[in-house]
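Before surveying the methods themselves, let us examine one representative protein, written as a sequence plus integers encoding its fold.
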Amino acid sequence: MGNTNQATGCRFLGEDFPGITGRITNSGEVYDFDFRFMGEVIHKTRGRVAQRWWNIQSTFSI
């Protein structure tokens, strides 16, 4: 949200907003999803101090 947490001086910023809109689906269609995300901790004066990647993979039928 970008709001500063005054108690700890931390700030959370969400930049990934995955989603699918406007898709016409038909019964029996199969979809593969592969979402990849990266998170990092950035210190105000020392720069990036931690980084982590993770992903979600799944297949499903409508």
User: Anything to note?
Assistant: Strands lie at 4-5, 10-11, 30-43, 47-61. The chain has a mean pLDDT of 77.
